[in-house]
Amino acid sequence: MRPAWWQTLVEWVSRRAGTDPVRLATAPRQAVAAAAASLQGEALQRAEIAAHLQRGLHALALYPHPVGELPEGQPSALADAVDRALQDRDWATRQLPRRPQLLPQLIQTVNDEVASARVMAAIIGQDPVLTGNLLRIANSPAYKVHERPVDSLQRAVTLVGTEGVRQIISAVLVQPVMQVQCEVFPQFSAIIWEHALLASRAAADHARTVTFGDAFAAQWLGLVQGLGAALVMRQLLQEAQARGETIAPAVVLDLLQRWSLPLAQRVAAAWDLPEPVHQALAADAQGPLADSLRLGSAAAAASLLCRHGHGPQARMLALLEQLPSAPPHALRWIWRRLHGRNVETLDEAMHDARGEAGA
Length: 359
Known about the structure:
Elements: H1 4-14, H2 21-35, H3 49-62, H4 77-87, H5 91-95, H6 103-111, H7 117-124, H8 128-138, H9 153-178, H10 188-211, H11 215-243, H12 249-270, H13 275-280, H14 288-307, H15 313-320, H16 328-339, H17 346-358
Helix pairs in contact: 1-2, 2-3, 3-10, 3-12, 3-14, 4-11, 4-12, 7-9, 8-9, 9-10, 9-11, 10-11, 10-14, 10-16, 11-12, 11-14, 14-15
């Protein structure tokens, strides 16, 4: 049985045809708020919290320009076409992105206890584009540890250490294949990428400090889950273009929920990632790595929803504390590293602005 907020969201997208431009500009934000409504106060079953946060994230990724609709009570021919394409045995051969050229070297250095962060940075240094991406990610909120910009590979190694460089290099290798040109949902690629980056960081932190598991494997779980979502959108766009159809947000939300993890599993297999990564990506997976993925993905979604004004930090933390293997002291440390001590949500910023105006 789907929760009430999900039905509210589906009903909203089915009413959007013929809406005047002013209402269309504001309604998507209301839709995201509806998707996050149960996160702000309504009681949630513990087993449903991660899924609720994930749906809220996907709704946020589709804001601010959902278009088109499906007639009420009729099945989606477009969704059926995407399902058929993804179920095709040959789909992986035609559509899965190639394994990053430097990935085997990265895995080898991770398994070599003697290999240093400088060795791995030297691997990336062979490619100017990858070097630029590494420095960009090292300066992103997910990894930045100092006010002074990271302007060289050597400084990156010094500031974030061996484990941090491993994480950044992994993100650098995945980022190029996660880009999706999507005029219909222009925010999608940026939100999904930021979530993957934050989720990989949080999952690695959880594995290192809570389950004492494989932080490198946990990090890749967050990254390939994001890549799975990008591949769903890519296939959907191809089918819509071939059929000359518009895309309803409700169709995207449903496909993302059903296919992101299965496609992530296919990526993990095709790229020869460690076997535990494949197993932890199963929908019903149990164990330390699955807990790390669930916590990392949920915490990253909560952080992004919070930053965009769709839930207070206290409520988000209360939800995250109910997830498996989420001791409060460790969770709050992960949240501070993920969300930042001084990060404002949009709601807090608006509240402060109103207070200053009234002073």
